[in-house]
Amino acid sequence: xxxxxxxxxxxxxxxxxxxxxxxxxxxxxxxxxxxxxxxxxxxxxxxxxxxxxxxxxxxxxxxxxxxxxxxxxxxxxxxxxxxxxxxxxxxxxxxxxxxxxxxxxxxxxxxxxxxxxxxxxxxxxxxxxxxxxxxxxxxxxxxxxxxxxxxxxxxxxxxxxxxxxxxxxxxxxxxxxxxxxxxxxxxxxxxxxxxxxxxxxxxxxxxxxxxxxxxxxxxxxxxxxxxxxxxxxxxxxxxxxxxxxxxxxxxxxxxxxxxxxxxxxxxxxxxxxxxxxxxxxxxxxxxxxxxxxxxxxxxxxxxxxxxxxxxxxxxxxxxxxxxxxxxxxxxxxxxxxxxxxxxxxxxxxxxxxxxxxxxxxxxxxxxxxxxxxxxxxxxxxxxxxxxxxxxxxxxxxxxxxxxxxxxxxxxxxxxxxxxxxxxxxxxxxxxxxxxxx
Length: 437
Known about the structure:
Layout: H1 8-13, H2 16-36, H3 44-51, H4 56-66, H5 69-81, H6 94-130, E1 135-140, E2 143-149, H7 150-175, E3 177-178, H8 192-201, E4 205-206, H9 217-244, E5 251-252, H10 272-293, H11 304-332, E6 335-336, H12 338-345, H13 354-363, H14 368-384, H15 389-394, H16 397-400, H17 405-410, H18 421-429
Parallel strand pairs: 3-4
Antiparallel strand pairs: 1-2, 5-6
Helix pairs in contact: 2-3, 2-6, 2-8, 4-5, 6-7, 6-11, 7-9, 9-10, 9-11, 10-11, 13-14
């Protein structure tokens, strides 16, 4: 069985303790910026840093009465730092603290997720190269189409993950901004210089023009990037599920020693991990929708977005990280059956080569319409049983009048369809890829 989620670093980012520690980090950065302008006593930030203790239980206790998490947090920190506490939150509103801290949290979470996706992409690269020459049938609408290689199928996943990485990097740049511009964004109580210096020290950009909050289209873009990442991973999982069907059985997710597939049927080897990934991708899409709903707020701000974000951001990052981690394990241990792939390629007795025959007849001088009619007639008959398409063509005088036996037989060689696979790999991975033999 695929191992349970083992990424405690990502989960730890979204604990109450981690959130309050980031809040403290932001508050102290503001105090330090005020010190430099002579608006807070020298050394206040460092004294508070040395004395401050985050006590989640005490904050919860205070919040049960105060009904305001930021005030409960400031009260608890004030209890540990003494008189210097009057320089905490000076000139700030709650959203200055919460939105700036959220930017730090989400940027860090994105960095962790990018590490996992990069590792997944490297696993896909290894699998694609290992099966660059593993011939199989390509399918469209679920029906046999023309020959491809399994490596080419995986290369599509590899390239998709590259776009997911680029998309997340762009979303990270959008989300990594804060604001200290006050209750309606006018910078009435903290100067632009304090805002800029504070955010720079925290590794953040400045929201150029804010209301009470950082604008939520930024957050929606990040959630959309996570949703699209989920869809890309789901694409991989769904394909493996199809390939694992008993009638196909060209690839199979790992089935560990001691694993059981069904409480009733001892023979079952179900693609449960891929199915789980497909299900979780739906939650990412739903969360992205919720993020889009959060963009439009009343005037300079209402609180409709806040409760939603407390759910969708932890859930989305944990799910995306879990899905990437699980898929990396699946690809690392994927069971691939080249002999079954070749058998399935030959299952329709040559029908997958119909376009090659069509082009050969057209090149030999028949009209495209006539060529299509001839090939389709024999293909439809071959669907129903023997003889195979090639034998039917060899027995058709209209075909043999323009194509000899050797020309007809060449139409049924899979290598013709794969002659540019190396070029596609080079286009994606670079010219270092070993050539097709």
